[in-house]
Amino acid sequence: MSSDAMAIPSATAEARPCVEVVHEWVTTVDHKRLGILYIVYALLFLVVGGIEAIIIRIQLIRPHNDLVSPQVFNRMFTMHGTTMIFFVAMPVLFGFANYLVPLMIGARDMAFPRLNAFSFWLTALGGLLLYFSFLGGNGLYGAGNAPDVGWWAYAPLTAKAFSPGPSSDYWTIALLVSGFGSIGTAINLIATILCLRCMGMTLNRMPLLAWLNLVMSGMVLIAITPLSAAQIMLLVDRYLGGHFFDTQAGGSATIWMHFFWIFGHPEVYVLIIPCFAFMSEIIPVFSRKPIFGYPVMVGATVCIAFVSLSVWAHHMFTIGMNSYANSFFTITTMAVGVPTGIKIFNWLGTMWGGSIQFKTPMLFSIGFLFQFLIAGLTGIMLASAPFDWQLSLSYFVVAHFHYVIVGGILFALFAAFYYWYPKMTGRMLSERLGKLHFWLFLIGFHLTFDVMHFAGILGMPRRIYTYEPRPGWGTLNLVVTIGAFIQGAAILVFVTNLVYSYFKGAKAGNDPWDAWTLEWSVSSPPPAYNFASIPVVASRRPLWDLKHPEDPDSRYE
Amino acid sequence: MSAVTSPFTERSPEWTLPYKGKVGMAGLIIAESAIFTIFVVAYLFYLGKSITGPTPREVLETPIFFTICLLSSSLTIHLAGKELENGHRKTFLILWSITIALGALFLFGTALEWHRLIYEHGLTISTNLFGTTYYSLVGLHATHVTAGLVMLTVVLLFGLADRVGIDQAARIGTLSLYWHFVDAVWIVVFTVVYIVGR
Amino acid sequence: MVRSDQIRRPLSKAAGIAVLLAGGLLAASLCFGAPGDPSPLPSIFDPRSTPTKWIYDLSHFVLLITGLIFAVVFSLLTYVVVKYRKRQGDDGREPAQVYGSTQIELAWTVIPILVVVVLFLVTARAIHSIQDAPKPESAVEVVAIGHQFWWEFRYPQLGVVTANELHIPVSEAAHPTPAFLTLLSADTDHSFWVPQLAGKTDLIPNHVNHMWMDPNQTGIFLGQCAQYCGTQHAKMLLRVYVDTSEDFALWVRGQQQPAVLDANVTAGRRVFETTACINCHAVGGTVADGRFGPDLTHLMSRHTIASGAAENTKANLRLWMQKPDVIKPGSLMPAMQLSNADLDALVDYLETLR
Predict the structure, then answer these.
(1) Which residue of A198, A329, B9, B91 could cross-link A313, Cys pair, CB 3.0 to 4.6 Å?
(2) Which of C200, C207, C210, C222 to mutate to probe the A interface, most A CBs <10 Å?
(3) How far is it, in rounded angstroms, from Cα A527 to Cα C205?
(4) What pTM, to 2 d.p., does this model score?
(5) Would you say domain A29-555 falls under CATH 1.20.210.10?
(6) B128: which residues sit within 8 A by CB, 6+ positions away?
């Protein structure tokens, strides 16, 4: 493994039969290929989920619109939410983790490569199964095909009485299957990070991306599984005559809510923590300074992981819990904002005194900081239970969580794409298209999601396929829809950039950004074995030490 | 250039990281514990809330013998692992087989109990909340016992083909962790269902 | 390239702010409906009862704190982005590599914790005031039962059963007559949300909830179901009529009467009582005693049908019975498959149920 053999020259581009290439990709256990498979898979579903969103927005462009029937609309918002969370966000983040973690810790692959492949294909199968429901399912009162019970699938709407056909089962089983895939990847990441670090890389010297994916994986283990358990219970109810959520037999509808949100809330931290990781790698490089307060960044993340397990019922403030329970979840929810806010300060501290370069990854990172700040503040508003009694279940909440997921997570993901695409493909993404993508998306995003808050304030609930002509609702919805189209255009620019640059982008070389972590020490793309000889490190930024032998980080840590 | 050298010239000899098999299995155990926790919570939540049908007190009989079987199998698998580490393949195989037999006996006991509950007391998964939560929880555990037995049997077959030696001791240890977990879960389930729940 | 970047970044901030402000001004101008507005606006910032007033006051405090935090952090972000941008003259040397600062990190941990404590205490007080408010003797008790996709309202002490349009008396400070609602559900989860009168509370099967509201002004207040409950969740609308105490007493008396028995419409009444109508609907004082659908005893005392989806006119009534999917596709009202003659007779009958 650590021989000094010369790097094997990369294979020349000879024409190979298509079947052979496909076979290689389908049977791969290489973390880099699996990472790319995850990412491409997620991008495909991003487009699908985006189309569902466009349909929703066109239907809501004016009161009493009739582009689609209520049955179709209800399927659209259910599938949009389910797709985006489980088949876009989770896979793309696991994809980046898969690709980057072994490279960043100086390993040749993940701890369990075959489990890695198995987990990917489970997730892929889950997505296909969910979408097969358009052909094979049957919804509320037999009224359709794909699931139409909302992505939370609240009981008893999912009971056989109210959802006699199999569409709820497509939801349940697709997510059960992909959930097991997620657990497999989480186990893999934990084992990789704890057991395969190169010599000298103590936990204290690990890149923050590795640390945060470790924390995220730990959360996946105990957050996804409650959903799996609840889904097994739902299947018992629907097929074995069980009564877990059967209110007629004394069962409880609220216990589904508790189980779902015990999954649901940590899940959103599972999604955001890898994005914190991206920011913690990208902002330092483009500010030309190390991350400010590495130990606190780790500590704050661990803190978030623990506290986030205690906040779930802030999604249930309206269900009639007593005042003590409501107060408890108010304080824990506000408390989790503290370590989260600290991270924003640390990123600002990183930029302070730096020399900021406004390349596309940094533009998206700055957008992230601005939007995540606002999202966190509207979160504080929602954390205050009485305020939440007005804001929840309205478009205010929809605006809030899209602010986090699109304004936060997606912006961070775009930054990650522009930053690591050169490593993965050997080509730079076009800066011009990148900036066009950024500006278009920024404008579209704010047009949609800033304005959306006010629709909620004016009393517009969520998940409605049409609305009465109340004053202001029509105008607000029109603006929101226009913003959606602008974001769609921006996504097209992004996809064009991805494809065009693959063939025509400037050659990247090993280290186009003058960065400091191990993945930039190998070629772009890296060879199959990652490193010719396993590195030995002495600090958090091994490449800084190499480039600045007169002033290595190891002297200060 | 894909090699990175550090300014330090000496390589630290003390660079051992945990065994990935154990870490991976620990991760799986944590995840499974979360699943069981949710089923236990549902069981406890629904105690006393059944509208109809038999109650736990009326129909449950504490399975002491079969519990002892299962818990003893933890001892035998532990001893088996030790024997393998010392190279005593034959003793390992014997203890391993006893483990499987004890586990199978436990499953048989569960089957007996369920047969009695269904045919003598009319308690099924759809009878009432108690039936639903009981069969789900105990059934989930039994499924894990079954999966464990399958894996143990596969190892037994490999062992009989003389392919399990000292070199596989670490992996046997990892598998044993799973088996210990299954037993630990039973302690919890047993306490919740047969002690607290009555 | 670098210079235009330097200008663009602050410009992008400005662009973002402009959009925010424009949206804010636009929406703010729509947030406040005038009292007695013919098309009332169910804004959460237009409280007309005590619980919503308390929430409104709390929201001011929360908005103040979050606004301050935003101002501080946003200023820091803008400052950093402008001041520390890479400039043309930079010679490519790396800036000072600073790893952290314990004092600064301590400060920006302690201050947010204090903010959270204060916010929490203020919030907890509001939670208790609203949720644990005692029910006075003079409260009007209503039991609200959520159905797919309509609202059943029962006044147990008054012997009144109605649907979709809730009547409650205005509550005067001198002699408060708040409405205390018990919330139940006949099928799936729903949520009662009339933003000007109370924060929303869910209606969950096998789970009893409570809420209260004491409107300080007469008028009509609009709301709708806020918890997704199925195909026609969007048209499960709410109308709350806040009457003067005299008008309320009048309305109650009217609702307490048995159904009007008009001899001119016996044909229609026979159609009603001999077809499937009575499986779902009740008409007080007749054989019709169905509970699945709304009580029709005083159907004509309501301004809307189909839980607000259509105005209560003759044409709409007829359409509702003949082709309900035109008004509310996916609702549980079946198309009655009646002949035109029967339909006309039926409508005439229903129109007598004042």
Answers:
(1) A329
(2) C200
(3) 59
(4) 0.94
(5) yes
(6) A243, A249, A250, B50, B51, B52, B53, B54
